Each structure stands twice: as C-alpha cells, then as structure tokens.
C-alpha cells in the first residue's frame, strides 16, 4: 500500500534494532508528506538511527517533529543528527532524551543551532537524561538565550546547584530557567571531573560567537545589503 499521504508515524516502543531500522528507513522514504516521526525507545542503536537520519536528509522536507529518544545514541551520533537535519526548513521539535550524548553532544548541537541558517524553525530541543553536567547546561542556557528557543527540557541530568544558579542568571532575559522544564530528577550533588576533555572544550569556547547567530533570512538580507553597497552605477 502507498504511504504517500502519511503525515504522522508513531513507532514508540517498537523494537526495530539495527536491521529493522534500515527497513523502516526504506519504507519512510516513500512518505514525502511525513511531518511527525516518533521512534522513541525503538532500539535503533547508532547504526540504525544514522540510516534513518540519512534518509531524512533527502526526504520528508516538511518534517516538523522528530523524537529519537532512548535509542542508545552517543555523542558521535550528534554529528549525524546535525548534518542530516540542520537544513530542515520546518523542524520545530527535536527530542534526544535518554541517549548518552553528554556535554559533547550538547556542545555540537548548540554550535549548530546558533549557526545562521541552520535549524531555522526549531523551538524545542529536549535533552532529558542525556548525561549532561553543569558545563553542558550552562552552554545550553547561552544557546537558548542567543537563539530564543521556547523549550529545552533537561530533567534527569547531573547539573550542580551552582550550575543551576548560573543557568538561571543566563536565562533571566530569555524566559527564565523554566525553559528547562521540571528538574525533579536532576542530580545536584554530581561533581564534574576537572580533567574532563569535553568540559575543557566547552569552557575554552568563545561564547561571544553564539550571539552572532541570526535567522537565515536576516543573514541573506545582510549579504544583499553588503553587495548593493559595493555596487557602483
């Protein structure tokens, strides 16, 4: 049967595994109208998720909602997430809950989201239970403030009390820390390791670059204005 008109596909808790994910990707390739895809807790694993993402990179241009939570993804998989989804014009909601992407994954996502023209429609990024500590959370707070995300749920992570206070200060003009949602399962007693390479990379990053991001149309307008300014008649 044809699925050309299929707009919503919910496969939550359906166990695909890597091989099944490949079959799913081939099937959804025939669904150009797909807007909503939920594969939460489907055991896609990294290889299967990456096959699905590869398919989405050239199909389902109207995709608005994607939930990849609970599929054993690691930080390296975030590079594929970014590469395959960054130019999706309608993607508003992206969930990666319960994947061990850690601070490195947050760092990669944050840089992508604040790059002009990338993830242009994104309003919600859910990263609950992703092994994120204070360094990743404060970086995400800066991303939220710079980009103006409406929601970035972070419950179930390891954000210290001091980290939460810093996040609250950073988000004061961007809707407050409520943008992180309820934090009932956050572990405030977690202590970061001083020699953690991912944390060191985040702390060494020039955060002023995050404020340089602008909507794609604004960037294009600026380029046009510059070109016109250099034009002589």
UniProtKB/TrEMBL annotation:
Superkingdom field: Eukaryota
Pfam families the record matches: LRR_6 (PF13516)
Range of residues in the leader sequence: none
GO MF: GTPase activator activity
Protein's name according to its UniProt entry: Ran GTPase-activating protein 1
Annotated organism of origin: Phaeomonas parva
């Amino acid at each position: 049967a044809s699925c050309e008109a299929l707009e919503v596909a919910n496969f939550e808790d359906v166990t695909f595994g890597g091989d099944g994910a490949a079959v799913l990707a081939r099937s959804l390739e025939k669904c150009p109208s797909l807007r909503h895809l939920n594969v939460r807790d489907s055991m896609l694993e990294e290889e299967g998720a990456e096959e699905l993402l590869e398919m989405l990179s050239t199909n389902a241009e109207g995709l608005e909602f994607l939930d990849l939570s609970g599929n054993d993804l690691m930080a390296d998989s975030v590079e594929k997430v970014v590469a395959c989804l960054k130019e999706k014009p309608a993607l508003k909601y992206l969930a990666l809950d319960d994947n061990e992407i850690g601070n490195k994954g947050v760092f990669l996502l944050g840089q992508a989201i604040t790059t002009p023209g990338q993830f242009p429609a994104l309003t919600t990024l859910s990263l609950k239970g992703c092994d994120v500590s204070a360094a990743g959370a404060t970086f995400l707070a800066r991303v939220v403030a710079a980009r103006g995300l409406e929601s970035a749920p972070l419950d179930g992570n390891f954000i210290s009390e001091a980290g939460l206070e810093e996040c609250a200060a950073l988000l004061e003009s961007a809707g407050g820390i409520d943008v992180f949602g309820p934090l009932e399962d956050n572990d405030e007693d977690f202590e970061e390791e001083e020699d953690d390479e991912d944390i060191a990379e985040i702390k060494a990053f020039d955060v002023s670059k995050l404020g340089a991001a602008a909507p794609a149309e604004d960037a294009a307008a600026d380029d046009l204005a510059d070109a016109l300014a250099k034009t002589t008649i």
